[in-house]
Structures are given as C-alpha cells and as structure tokens.
Amino acid sequence: MLQKKVEAVTTAAWHTGLLAGHRRFVRVVDDFTTEMGSSIGPIEVAYESWGTLNAERSNAVLVLHALTGDSHAVGGVEPGHPTPGWWNGLIGPGLAIDTDRYYVVCPNVLGGCQGTTGPSSIAPDGEIYGSRFPRITIRDQVRVEHAFAQTLGIDRFAAIVGGSMGGMRVLEWLVTYPDAMERAVVLAVGAAASAEQIALASLQIRMIEADPNYCGGDYYRYGVVPSEGLRLARELAHLSYRSPIELDDRFGRSRQLADEAVVDDNTGAAGSFAVESYLAHHGRKLVQRFDANSYVRLSEAMNYHDIGRGRGGVRRALAGVKAQVTVIGISSDRLFPLAQQQAIVDGLPSCRGLHVVESDIGHDGFLVEVKAIGDVLRPEL
After folding, report:
1. Residue range 347-357: mean pLDDT, rounded
2. Helix (H) or strand (E) holding 64
3. Which of 22, 72, 305, 363 is catalytic?
4. What are the extents of the domains in the chain?
C-alpha cells in the first residue's frame, strides 16, 4: 500500500548539514510496501531543481541519476556535495536541457545515501536501518519517484531523461506510467540486466559483504566502515565503465612512480602499473562519499531490472509505450553494448532509430561526452 502525503519539506536529524546549496527534502509517502512485500516508511526524497515551473506545470523535465550519482546533476563542489555536478554542460540556460525553457528536477533515488531514504537513514524506531533496509527493485524506485512528482504537483513531464541505472528507471516510467511524459531519453542501458551485468554486480556485492567491517550490514553501530570491500567493488565496476582502447591509450604498460605507488594494506606491496593506481584512486574516492549498504541495495535493484518481468516479456512491455522516445548508446560501451539499445529501439512502437555517440571512453561516455549527447538531445527536446 502506498499512501501519498503532501506536506512541507521535512528534515530528519541525519540530514543535518545537507541543506546547503540547492538540495531540498520532501516527505512523499508515509507507508510503502516494496515489490517483494517489505514495509518501509516514511520515505523522504532529496532533490535539486533548476529553472522555473510554469503555471500549467507542463514544462518539467525529470533527470534520473546512475548508481553512485545523486541529485547534484549541476553545480560545483559545495557543502553537502563533495563532487561537481555529474551532468555539468548538459543542463543549464541555453544548453541541451535548457533551464530557460524547462523546470529541471533531479531526485536522489530510493535506497541511496544522499538524502533520500536508504539503509543509512533513521528508521521509525530511532535506529539506523542498516541490514533491516529491505531489498528493492527499479520498480519500487519509480513508484517513489512518481509519488515525488505528485507531491510537486506534476502529473505529466515534458521529458524524462536518464542513463545507466537512471535509464533503467526511465524505461520503467515509460511502461508503468505511459501517460506521465511527453518524451523520454534513454541512454546506455538495456531493457533487462544481462547475465554478465548480473555477474559483475554480484561480485561487487560479495566483495563488500566479505569485508570484516561489513558486520552483516550493521557496521554503523560499531563505528567502522567496510572501506576495503567498497573500494575493491568500485575498482571492478570502474574497469567495466571504461573501454580497453581508452585504458591502453592512457596507461598502456606504464609504471607507477615509487613515491606515488598504491600500497596494498594487506601485502605491503606497491602497485607497479599506472592503471592500478588509477583504479585505486577511483575506489578511494567512492569510499569517501558513498555508503556500502546503498551500493549493495542499488546493485541488487539493477540485477532485478527487467521491464518484461510479469508483463509478457520485453517486447510486449515496450509495445504499450506512448511517449516519443530517444535512445542513445555509446559506441565503445562494453557494460551495456549497443545491441541492448538496439533491442529497445526495435521494441518501441515509434522510434526513429538508435543514436550512437562515437567515443573511446566506454560506458562512462554517457557522463563524459556531454557535447555529443547534447547535440542529440537539442533537436529531440
């Protein structure tokens, strides 16, 4: 049962210090039952917005972030935001997602750790959820996003846009709420998680859970962090986000200077190759800003992703889509290869074909190639 509650923005104790900048919080539901039958709530959503919502509330664009993203799609480093906006250069006045025309809103996802209710949130009993935060699905996240839109008074979006895990949610929006948007943009994702994607995510989950500091997901009460497991999970993930061509061009077999080498805490051995240092750097960065339990729950949700589940398959699910959909793939993406985006295009009732962004970067091209993506989006939006 999902009960919508429209009320003023509320801020729980664990949000202290996060209200700087544009981030705001709104309670969207009091009670929520997940697809797997667990009850959680109340649920608060953290979000940021840019531009002005018109009187008709018809110019809203919903932007959905990927696995370790958050509501900070645009902006610089500021209190509460240790990293710059993840889509700077794509959203703003006169840009492809034009905030002079559109009211752009980006919520943090259910299960996240940047303001929206997740494993590190305070449960109704006053204790952190931790291991008690249930498994969730992409459909659960979209139901919360729909309640969030209703809380803002938005019944129909001018467009919904997202890549990777955000693209999974765009697809679920298209199938679950076919009248809730005029247009949609799906980037660098498939209609269902593949065996390889499930395997990669499952290995990352096991790395985190194998860390002695994980404590079954209740590490908060002991004042420890499963940093080694989360770091290794991120390193494996980051490897899948980049292409072999890019890694060879940037690093090849170049050696790491001794005074910059990454030292393994267990063996004391220094990483001898520059690419090792590169991966370790990204692993350490994530540990500083992300919660391990959120990483586990969101990775599980991505593994469950299948828009055809219980709907007669992917093609039947896509056949009911009413919005105008733009599908974009990255040429060198080995995590979500172009064939997966082509399958989405083939299943849509009306789609003008797959837009391929040529890039050597790999999956992360959907974040990095903002000019090329903007060139595709501008005429579509």
Report:
1. 92
2. strand 60-64
3. 363
4. 13-192+306-380, 197-298
333 catalytically annotated: yes
The two tokens of residue 201 are 């995510």
| Known active-site residue 363 | yes
> Mean pLDDT for the chain?
91
Phi, psi of 185 (to 5 degrees): -125, 125
In angstroms, the CA 62 to CA 56 distance is 16
pLDDT of residue 257: 64
Catalytic residue among 164, 243, 294, 299, which? 164
Q: Which pLDDT tens digit goes with each residue over 294-311?
A: 999 999 999 999 999 999
Structural tokens at position 238: 């980051």
364 marked among binding-site residues: yes
Q: Which residues contact 57 (CB under 8 A, 6 or more apart)?
A: 153, 154, 155
Domain at 13-192+306-380, CATH class? alpha beta
CATH number for 197-298 (one of 1.10.1740.110, 2.30.30.240, 3.40.50.970, 3.40.50.1470): it is: 1.10.1740.110
Amino acid at 206: R
Mention every residue, 6+ apart, whose C-beta is less than 8 A from residue 356: 328, 329, 330, 331, 338
Dump strand ranges (E) for 121-168: 157-163
Residue 313 Cα distances to 191, 192, 222, angstroms: 10, 10, 45
Tokens at 49, concatenated: 């917005």
Mean of the pLDDT values across residues 141-153? 98
Catalytic residue among 121, 333, 355, 359: 333
